[in-house]
Each structure stands twice: as structure tokens, then as C-alpha cells.
Specification:
heterodimer, B: alpha/beta, 4-stranded antiparallel beta sheet, 12 helices, binds FE2/S2 (inorganic) cluster
Chain lengths: ~150, ~400
Amino acid sequence: MSKGPYSEKVMDHFMNPRNMGEIESANAVGEVGNPACGDVMKIFLDIDDDGIVTEVKFKTFGCGAAIASSSMATELIKGKRVEEVLALTNQSIVESLGGLPPAKIHCSVMAEEAIEAALKDYYERKGEDPSIVDKMKENIKKDNPEGGN
Amino acid sequence: MAFLDNAAGTRPDERVVEKMLPFIKEQYGNPSAHFYPLGRESFEAVALARQQVAEFLGAKEDEIVFTSCGTESNNLALKGALNHPSRKDKKHVVISEVEHFSIQNPLIDYLNKGYEITKLKVDETGLINIEELKSVIREDTALVSIMFGNPEIGTMQYSDEIGKVCREKGVLYHIDAVDGAGHVKIDVNELNCDLLSIAAQNFYGPRGAAALYVREGVKLVSVLQGGHQENGLRSGSENVAAIVGMGEAARIAREEMDDYVPEMKRLQKKLWEALSNMFDFLHFTGHPDRRLPGHVSFWIEYIEGESLLMWLSLKGIYAASGSACSSNILAEDEEDLVASPVLTAVGVPDDVCAGSITFTMSKYTTEEEVDKVIDELPGIVKKLCEMSPAYNRND
Ligand code: FES
């Protein structure tokens, strides 16, 4: 394929999105919208009793970068523990995709935020304070000041 | 491959290319050097092209100024008219909200210089209201500039009637006819205009050649300062090969338009009808009848424009999108990802503007190309709908 603004990885995930769909019985669902472009991303997770993401699916209304970001993000968090999932930043999504055009970085941020929203939902369903997610993220950032966006 | 992005530029006619080649290779003389044969040949070739373009527009030869692109023609019309000393007290300009960026953007500077710009609203079909136009023209209106046909939504204005109003009110009238020329008869007298822009690339000529029609007696100042070329209105050595190509393209369009346009309209109708039966969540944009030939534009609920455009392209179908996201994919930051002003103007909600698609045909468009769209689109839309969190239908 000829070189366009999107890397081959992005094109691959755009054409063959991994984990696209819904999980009816998901115990964590996060949906975020992007005011810059009106796009929407929804993430469904199955988290087992050990706090491991056993299943993940997504649905996205958005540009090529948004679809590729959601697809890549689901790949990156599958089988991971909640703490590891929270450590995922949009930057690592962008890196795994082989880069994104500058105007499209925000599409990857949407993926990070959708996952965060799903984890908040997870804790809320468990009857815990969802703001624990923010605290955990803060701690991760403290330990790893380079990360985050 | 199905090339349906002809508003971005048509394939040059083979005969046009043939005519251009000698002026790229051996006939490289500068038309200003008409004292020796090499220069004279170029001089005469440009003169012939001028005659051909004039005939194409129903104009006189010395009313044609060659420029390099539609943007330059529009800039020259606007700045040339507003900057002329005879209009120094006229500081009001009327345009529509669906004008091309090459009309909208130059006017920003004039706002800072104390000018007032009235942007006429369009209705949901993309037409301006002539009565409203009448009511906004004032003593100090220097210029009215309303395009002929809109490349994004296909709507053609009643340009001749707009011209009549401007005539009555004694106001200068410019038409950006870049989209339309070569597919609809453009006659500057029937349109009652004073200035009119066309570009060769939109009617089977080369990129790099365009023209501004300037009615006899209309005073403009040059935008480029330099030599005396083009009546002093466009200094700089002529792009002879491109101008020769433009002349030939104008000749062919004038002589053959009646032969190829009916077929374009037939294919347009075929595609339109197929799309209207395809999904009930597909919405056409622009005017249903007053449309540029071969122009079909729409948006689809639940589906984002860039994704649709990319999928079409992967299937070998090349189209355009009013989508901010796709058109500005190389923009430096996301601030540039705003909804298309044209789509917003015709009332398409901001967040779905991202989903608009424009197919534009040419005289080379074939039935197979249109069939390819009809075959491939349902599958692509289905795939994107499945992926879309907004789509919750079970049918
Ligand atoms: S998600 Fe809207 S531009 Fe990428």
C-alpha cells in the first residue's frame, strides 16, 4: 500500500478491527464522546474476580484513527490486570500504531478515556467509589512522570 | 477504479494534452518576445486560446485575463475590484455563506480595514434568497460575489437573476463559476455578470490555467506587480502550455457539451435513485433539481465521513467528503477539525457533517463506475453501522 498520512499499522487496524462488537454481559462499560469532532467510542470489558480483563470489545463512530486506536487499545489491555490497564496511555496506543498525524492524536486520547470510563463503571457496579480510578491513575503518573498525556 | 471526485479536477482530454506538448518541448518561446518566431508562436498560441475561452463564455477576447487557478481568479476579482481607487468609498461586500475559501478568506483582511461584509444565508437546499439580496445592497456596496454551483452540495444558484438585481442596483457582480463551466452553459451576458472565474482543470483542461472574465469598462487593479502581461492585470510570464490547453478544452467543451452532459445526467439520476432506495438513514444534501450535472451528495446517519471515504477508497472508489476530519487529516492541530461551513449553512447538524460524501462525475464517467458504487456501498455502510455505537437497529 502506498504511503498516506496513516501508517500501515493504522490502516491494518482500520480495515481489520480487532475485538469489534459488544459484550452483553459486560461488567464494565465506558462511553466517551469527542466534542472536537462529534465522534463516540464505547468500550465493553469483562473483568474476572482476580481483576483480570478476560474479554474486551469496542464500538466506535469516528475517523480512521479513532477506529484504529480503539482496536489497538483493546489488544493492549486484553488479559491484563486492572492496574496495568490503567497504566495504558494514549501515547502507548499511538506508539503501537506506528504514529498518528498531529491532528489525530486526540482520537487516541478518546480510547484512553473510554477505558478509564469503563473502569469507573466497574468500580461503581461493585459498590466502590469510582474516583479510585483517578487516584490510581495519579499514582501511576507519579511513578512514571514521562507517561500520560 | 471508480473516479468520482471530478470536482477536484477532471481528467484532461487527450486532445488537450496533444496541443500542450509542443509548448512544453520545442515551442518554449516567451510570448513577450514576439520579435522572433519562437516567441511569436507562443504569442499567437496564447491569442488563440484567449479567443477560444472568450467564445466559450460569450465574451470578447480582451475581456479574458489568464491566471493560474480558480483561487487566483477569485482573489483578483475581489481585491482588484475593492482596491481600485474609484471604489474607495464603497466599503460593503455581499457574498453568500457557501462561498469557496478563496472568496471568504481574502475578505478577512478587508474586515480589518473597516469593510462590512454581508453573508447571505442559504435555505436548506443551498439557495440564496433573491429578495434578501435586494434588501441588503446599499449605496456603498462595492461588489456582490455569489458562486454559480457549489462543489460540496451541488446546488446551482439563479445566477442570471442575481445578475439582474445587481444590474438594477448598479453594483458590480462576480461569479465564481469554477464548478459548472464545461457542464452547464456559461454565458456572461445571459448571467448579467461583470466578473467571472473559471479554471481549466474543471473542464478537461490542465491544472495551472484559469481565467477571470472582466467586462469591458470594469476597472480593476492588479494583484501581482510586475510586467505588462494580461493588460497589466496579471504580471508574470504566461504558462503557455497550460493556457493553450485551456483554450483547447474550452473549444471542446463549447462544441461537445450537449453530447456528453445528457449521459452524465442519466448516470447522476441512476446513482441518486439507487441511493434513495438503499437506506432510509441516508440524506441528500443540496437542491434536488438545480444541481450541477453528475453531482450527488449526501450524509449517512451513524457513519463518519472519513471512515466511509477510506473504505470507499480501499474498494477503488474515489470520492470527496465535506468532512472536517478527512479534509484536514494533515492539519497541525485538532482546532482545524471544524464542521464544513457549507454543510452547517444548509442545516446539517455539526456532528454529522463529518459524514458527508460527494460524488462528482465527468464526461468520462462510465456506467461500471456508478454500478461499482451501487454494489459496494451497502456492504461498507453495513460494516460501519455495526461498528457504530449510535446504530441500534435490528433490520
Ligand atoms: S475521532 Fe474524531 S477526528 Fe478522530
